[in-house]
Design brief:
With 40 residues, the protein is mainly α. The chain has one helix at 9-39. The longest helix is centred in the middle third of the chain and has 31 residues, at 9-39. The model has no long low-confidence stretch (mean pLDDT 85).
């Protein structure tokens, strides 16, 4: 992969999808932790 301004569309969307997946995982983990903390 070269360091130019021409980033393929698939590459950019793939990166965005990975970021979104990470955010969703963090959100789910925080939600589960909150539920466990509330029920114990």
């Amino acid at each position: 992969m070269t360091d130019n301004d021409e980033v393929p569309n698939s590459e950019r969307s793939h990166g965005a999808a990975r970021v979104a997946a990470a955010l969703i995982l963090i959100y789910v983990a925080a939600t589960i932790a909150g539920v466990l903390a509330a029920t114990t």
